[in-house]
Design a protein that fits this description.
The chain contains six helices and nine strands; from the N terminus they run E-E-E-H-E-E-H-E-H-H-H-E-H-E-E. The protein is of the alpha/beta class. Helix 4 crosses helix 5. Bound molecules: adenosine-5'-diphosphate and magnesium ion. The site of magnesium ion has 5 residues, from helix 1.
Length: 202
């Protein structure tokens, strides 16, 4: 589904990712792990097509990621940021409906609300949610779009045990349904046996 071929990525003048290659197959879950500042978010953003490469190529469905139009990309990959940014006081339900342009429907939004266990949050303003709640809304938004690629930056970092288990279960279900799931995790490799591939020391 996705392959990174000898990619390098810089943040400003600073090279962060150097000559990195990996394959991300459909139906699998990959975890990116490593110490703070090692470039996990940078790597995920590059795979999302949100950061330019200084060299190398990322292909998505055998086509150069850089050649996709934004609207096309929005239907192919959903991104959950480390700290989802919700600046305007819309309700959770209203925010979910904003993904319609990328392909969500009322049905897929309801299904995502159930999967994330956030039905009690739908009428709350997103600006008044806790970090973990915001992130569950952002994951629901990503699922509602039903894109074949799911990219999540530390989706488990602000979650309690129940939500962590729920998210692991739903990511596993999405992968079994054929999606390519890539997440940044702050867990030791020994706690990631539900993942198919672990990327570290890059
Ligand atoms: P991680 O997600 O592994 O904690 P990041 O990918 O966020 O790491 O950051 C990798 C490196 O790039 C760090 O040294 C960080 O300080 C730097 N960096 C991240 N974002 C920016 C930015 N927008 N501008 C400049 N440097 C950045
Ligand atoms: Mg990060």
């Amino acid at each position: 589904m996705i392959s990174a071929n000898s990619i390098s990525v810089a943040r400003g003048a600073k090279p962060v990712i150097k000559d990195f290659s990996a394959e991300f197959k459909a139906g699998t879950i990959t975890a990116i792990i490593g110490p703070n500042g090692c470039g996990k978010s940078t790597l995920l953003a590059a795979i999302a097509g949100d950061l330019p490469l200084t060299s190398g190529v990322i292909s998505l469905k055998e086509k150069d990621l850089a050649s996709y139009q934004f609207a096309e990309l929005a239907k192919l990959r959903s991104v959950v940021l480390q700290q989802p940014i919700f600046n305007l006081a819309f309700t959770v339900q209203e925010v979910l409906a904003m993904a319609r342009a990328a392909g969500s429907t009322l049905e897929s939004e309801s299904a995502a609300i159930t999967k994330l266990g956030i039905s009690e949050l739908v009428d709350r303003k997103v600006t008044q949610l806790s970090g973990g709640e915001r992130q569950r809304v952002a994951i629901a938004l990503a699922l509602a779009v039903d894109a074949p690629v799911l990219l999540l930056d530390e989706p488990l970092a602000a979650q309690d045990v129940e939500s962590t288990n729920r998210i692991i279960e739903l990511l596993t279900t999405e992968a079994k349904a054929g999606k390519t799931v890539i997440l940044v995790a702050h867990l030791p490799a020994a706690d990631l046996n539900w993942c198919d591939q672990i990327i570290q020391n890059f």
